[in-house]
From TrEMBL:
GO molecular function, a single term: DNA binding
Descriptive protein name: Putative Site-specific recombinase, phage integrase family
UniProt entry keywords in alphabetical sequence: DNA recombination
GO biological process terms, semicolon-separated: DNA integration; DNA recombination
Location of the Tyr recombinase domain: 174-340
Organism whose genome encodes this protein: mine drainage metagenome
InterPro entries referenced in this protein's UniProt entry, alphabetically: DNA_brk_join_enz, Integrase-like_cat_sf, Integrase_catalytic, Tyrosine_recombinase_XerCD
The keyword Nucleotidyltransferase belongs to this UniProt entry's keyword annotation: no
Entry-linked Gene3D superfamilies: Intergrase catalytic core
Length: 340
């Protein structure tokens, strides 16, 4: 049975009512309300949940701000993950929009409101609406943070993980954007005009190797054999090691780069890579091209050179042929030439 007691200030004025629940097998629960009726109602609901075995301790989620949970995830979890810079960008976005809310108040309705608001937002970096894939990644980050809090940090949500109850943004059909006409030379021309000397070789490597941005930025000199023309990726997105053959053009791009004292081939963040790539595209008057499209381009070129699916997968790191189909968009004209 709950104990309901009045609360007074130092002048003995009534300032509220405190409910205390002590039940065998459960931690003591205490909460203060403005009215006795509210205190009794809370106690009744909480005791009922204890009896029915569905009680969740809300105290921690009520006093923990989402910004605090995001900060903890950023300091304890993100450093152990691949693609940390993009994870940090998503965390900053979530903090800016939802950080002020207590974890307990992150409801499915609030998440849906966030989703719709983001989809209607103009991105400062691109000048276009924030894409559904970007918003999906942000909601995925929110879901991982809330799950970590609930499962390992004792920050439980009364209604469960709210992102599981929200419809994810509808994604467009897989992109089939490739370099056309003289776009490659225009893109490389834009790179040559850049103050970022590393940008030109980075673009060459992306086109020649089909590496993901995270794999390029993770390259280390001690994992590259220029004589043997092989780059070893010890820790890829798929969690497996991959040996990537290097074309003579890729080797030349690597040889043009200085050796950094920390052993990394590129010492820039994904944000810097994306920003400089966007500027190079603008200089080359290239529309609707993303850095990841270069992976599509490289993969398709491997097929056009006559590599079979197993050989292509060994180079690109795709796990299944179905995944390769998503990235490979062969030109009908090239297929016609193969037919004779």
């Amino acid at each position: 049975m709950a104990t309901i007691s009045p609360r007074h200030d130092q002048d003995d004025n009534l300032i509220g009512w405190q409910a205390i629940i002590r039940k065998r097998g459960f931690p003591s629960q205490t909460k203060t309300f403005r009215t006795k009726r509210d205190a009794e109602a809370w106690a009744k609901v909480t005791e009922s949940e204890m009896v029915r075995g569905v009680f969740i301790q809300r105290t921690e989620s009520e006093r923990t701000l989402l910004s605090e949970l995001l900060d903890r995830y950023a300091s304890e979890v993100v450093p152990t993950l691949k693609g940390g810079s993009r994870d940090m960008s998503r965390i900053r976005t979530l903090k800016a929009h939802l950080g002020k809310y207590a974890v307990a108040s992150i409801t499915s309705a609030l998440v849906a409101q966030y989703r719709d608001s983001r989809l209607a937002t103009i991105s400062q970096s691109t000048g276009k609406l924030v894409g559904p894939q970007t918003v999906k990644h942000e909601l995925g980050m929110l879901q991982r943070v809330l799950k970590k809090g609930a499962m390992e940090w004792g920050v439980l949500l009364p209604g469960g993980i709210p992102t599981l109850q929200v419809k994810m943004p509808r994604l467009p059909n897989s992109r089939d954007r490739r370099l056309v006409d003289d776009e490659e030379s225009r893109l490389l021309g834009g790179c040559r005009e850049s103050n970022a000397a590393w940008l030109y070789p980075a673009i060459i490597l992306a086109i020649e190797t089909a590496m993901r941005a995270s794999e390029l930025l993770g390259l280390r000199w001690d994992n590259i054999d220029l004589k043997g023309r092989v780059a070893v990726l010890p820790d890829t997105k798929n969690g497996t090691m991959r040996r990537v053959p290097l074309s003579s053009r890729a080797v030349a791009a690597l040889e043009s780069l200085p050796r950094n004292i920390n052993g990394k081939v590129f010492t820039v963040t994904y944000r810097a890579l994306a920003a400089n790539f966007t500027i190079a595209c603008r200089r080359g008057d290239i529309k609707e091209l993303r850095f990841h499209d270069l992976r599509h381009e490289a993969t398709s070129r491997l097929f056009e050179k006559g590599f079979n699916p197993m050989q292509v997968a060994a180079i690109t790191g795709h796990k299944t042929l179905q995944m390769l189909k998503r990235y490979t968009h062969l030109r009908a004209e090239d297929l016609a030439k193969m037919l004779g």
